[in-house]
């Protein structure tokens, strides 16, 4: 699969084509003409920003943090030890390595290298980026390793033996680059959802079918077990497997939109569609109970289960009658609560919650016909995540973090009833004298929108503070307080203020917070962000001359809408790996998969919603925009670099100042190694300092 798009040559259903868009040629990701343009833009940006005397210092600061030997080596728990993926200056592409819990408890664990990605890349002449592994439970020694050439989402898969630390000769191999993945049915059988050739991908370029692949046979001959429709976002089959590695049957799904999915269970060889809402899904098996989660109110069996709740059915009753098994409430959120991540150990379900954007953890067990809920004793007023858990025992690792205090890794041994701090990250910046405050802005429709401000305690509120405002506001993804690390070192220590917004469209307050700002109501997200900026100015925290904004992917669209709708409110805008041309986004990369979030520009009514804010079309002659910094990655096969490229090209055509930079490898997350990541950070913070802090501001 190539990265170049299959964009139509002419307009279709009112969507702009070449006659309307002189920059459409930049949608070809790797054409010679496009790459020549990228190299020329990179040279200009490097000349302007890397020549700043602060650049090398900033880059060194970022690289020291990324390469730090003292950072927490986060792990996964497997029967044969704790596994970690590690990158540093000696191993830029990384090592897959393992140790024991006893050794991990020490300050200097003894690590055993399982896979050296740098050595593999050098031996094969590839830009390999490690994308994880999928292993056969319960032993988890037989794995399929995912590798990406250059960092894009599409990967190849190869069978790897963790015991011998080697790829299996003659083992399972899927060398065609593709989205999708596999599941192990047993040691000789895989469920495979991939690009199988013509007719095997959806319109969003994701797999639409799953095959059962037996060892020693060709994947081309593997029988298909489930097939969705080409109009689906994606679809496929999976295994209903419990924590003891017992397979209870096949399940399947059809994502008919990004946020709506049909679910199926195979009974007596036939697929039975589950009678659950399109915004509900299976959640896991705990104590022989099958759990479901719902993002909408679910009316069934004379009951109404509220949105964001957990519902259970007896597993054996479900297998006998998938739609008739009795449903019971496990948990429902209180006001301003929402569940986040979850994990299932050998004995219990652990769920992380947000309570007014503060983290909590709940332990759930089913005993004597009742669900028992207990709070896990962890620090308050922090962001809490689940880092690792075991299928073999009742043990979990939690990350605990906030803006100013280094992250800590807690280890709970549920069987022993003990909790301990295993690791604490070093302090990467001096937070002495800094404080965190939470405020609320009033959005255009009167809704109160919370945001956090990190600043020096007692900072003078005279509007002169260089301030960076960031956020996301989409896909029910929350942006939460987390240790600022590089931002603290490169921005806060230099007198900057940091603001994190929690706009509608995100997941900070559950599915309702998200669903209130999608499709025809997506402008609410942009209104919320602008309201936060206006509120910060009104409080004297900053002023338009000193206020910059930053966001990536959906957050890049957020920044694009903000600086085109309110160019008077900002003096810097970092537009990272963005969506930008929203009238053609469904034709670029995997954009069609997000129609459920934004709408379909081919439908006149929905095009009208989108046309009202699409940043690419909103860049017009005669407006004095803040000088933006747009950056992307050539290897990004998710949002595709065309969005950022075309934004920069249009600004250039109008004589507007801008910066553009494109990393030639790295995928959706930017650089593939610490050196590239540090350079990207340094470029951005030089830009922010020039635009917001220097007496004489510059443009590109």
UniProtKB/TrEMBL annotation:
Residues 1-22 are annotated as: Disordered. Keywords: Hydrolase, Protease, Serine protease. Residues 21-424 form the Peptidase S9A N-terminal domain. Residues 491-693 form the Peptidase S9 prolyl oligopeptidase catalytic domain. Pfam families: Peptidase_S9, Peptidase_S9_N. Coiled coil: none annotated. The keyword Calcium does not apply. The keyword Iron does not apply. This is Prolyl oligopeptidase family serine peptidase. It comes from Qipengyuania profundimaris.
């Amino acid at each position: 699969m190539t990265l170049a798009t299959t964009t139509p040559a002419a307009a279709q259903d009112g969507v702009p084509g070449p006659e309307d868009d002189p920059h459409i040629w930049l949608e070809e990701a790797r054409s010679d003409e496009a790459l020549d343009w990228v190299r020329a833009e990179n040279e200009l940006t490097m000349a302007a920003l890397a020549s700043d005397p602060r650049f090398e210092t900033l880059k060194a600061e970022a690289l020291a943090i990324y390469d730090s030997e003292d950072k927490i080596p986060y792990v996964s728990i497997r029967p044969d030890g704790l596994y970690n993926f590690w990158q540093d200056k000696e191993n830029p592409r990384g090592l897959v390595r393992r140790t024991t819990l006893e050794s991990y408890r020490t300050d200097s664990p003894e690590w055993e290298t399982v896979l050296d990605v740098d050595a593999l890349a050098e031996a094969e002449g590839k830009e390999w980026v490690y994308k994880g592994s999928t292993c056969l439970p319960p032993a988890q020694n037989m794995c399929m390793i995912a590798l990406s050439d250059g960092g894009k989402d599409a990967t190849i898969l190869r069978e790897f033996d963790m015991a011998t630390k080697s790829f299996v000769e003659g083992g399972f191999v899927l060398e065609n680059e593709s989205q999708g993945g596999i599941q192990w049915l047993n040691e000789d059988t895989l469920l495979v959802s991939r690009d199988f050739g013509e007719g095997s991908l959806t319109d969003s370029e994701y797999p639409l079918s799953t095959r059962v692949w037996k060892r020693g046979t060709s994947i081309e001959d593997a029988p298909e077990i489930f097939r969705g429709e080409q109009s689906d976002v994606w679809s496929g089959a999976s295994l209903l497997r419990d924590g003891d590695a017992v397979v209870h049957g096949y399940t399947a799904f059809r994502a008919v939109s990004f946020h709506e999915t049909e679910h199926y269970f195979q009974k007596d060889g036939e697929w039975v569609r589950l009678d659950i809402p399109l915004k509900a899904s299976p959640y896991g098996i705990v104590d022989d109970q099958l759990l479901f989660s719902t993002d909408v109110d679910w009316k069934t069996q004379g009951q109404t289960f509220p949105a964001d709740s957990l519902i259970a059915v007896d597993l054996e009753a479900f297998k006998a009658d998938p739609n008739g098994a009795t449903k019971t409430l496990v948990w429902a959120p209180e006001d301003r609560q929402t569940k986040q991540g979850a994990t299932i150990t050998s004995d219990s379900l652990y769920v992380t919650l947000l309570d007014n954007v503060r983290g909590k953890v709940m332990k759930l067990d089913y005993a004597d016909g009742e669900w028992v809920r207990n709070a896990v004793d962890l620090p308050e007023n922090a962001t809490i995540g689940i880092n690792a858990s075991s299928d073999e025992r009742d043990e979990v690792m939690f990350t605990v973090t906030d803006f100013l205090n280094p992250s800590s890794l807690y280890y709970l041994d549920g069987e022993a009833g003990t909790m301990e701090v295993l690791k604490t990250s070093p302090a990467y910046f001096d937070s002495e004298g800094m404080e965190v405050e939470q405020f609320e802005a009033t959005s255009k429709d009167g809704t109160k929108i919370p945001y956090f401000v990190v600043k020096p305690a007692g900072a003078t509120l005279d509007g002169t503070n260089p301030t960076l405002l960031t956020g996301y506001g989409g896909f029910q993804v929350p942006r939460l307080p987390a240790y600022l690390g590089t931002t603290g070192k490169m921005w806060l220590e230099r007198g900057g203020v940091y603001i994190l917004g929690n706009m509608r469209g995100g997941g900070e307050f559950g599915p309702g917070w998200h669903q209130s700002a999608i499709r025809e109501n997506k402008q609410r997200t942009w209104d919320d962000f602008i309201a936060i900026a206006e509120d910060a100015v009104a409080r004297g925290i900053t002023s338009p001359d000193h206020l910059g904004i930053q966001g990536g992917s959906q957050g890049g669209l957020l920044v694009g809408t903000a600086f085109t709708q309110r160019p008077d409110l900002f003096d810097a805008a970092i537009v990272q790996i963005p969506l930008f041309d929203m009238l053609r986004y469904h034709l670029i990369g995997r954009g069609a998969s997000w129609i459920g979030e934004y709408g379909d520009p081919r439908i006149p009514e929905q095009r009208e919603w989108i046309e009202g804010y699409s940043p690419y079309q909103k860049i017009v002659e005669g407006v004095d925009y803040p000088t933006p910094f747009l950056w992307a990655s050539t290897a990004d096969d998710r949002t595709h670099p065309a969005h950022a490229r075309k934004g920069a090209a249009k600004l250039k055509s109008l004589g507007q100042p801008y910066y553009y930079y494109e990393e030639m490898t790295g995928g959706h997350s930017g650089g593939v190694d610490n050196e590239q990541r540090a350079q990207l950070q340094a470029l951005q913070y030089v830009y922010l300092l020039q635009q917001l802090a220097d007496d004489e501001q510059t443009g590109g």
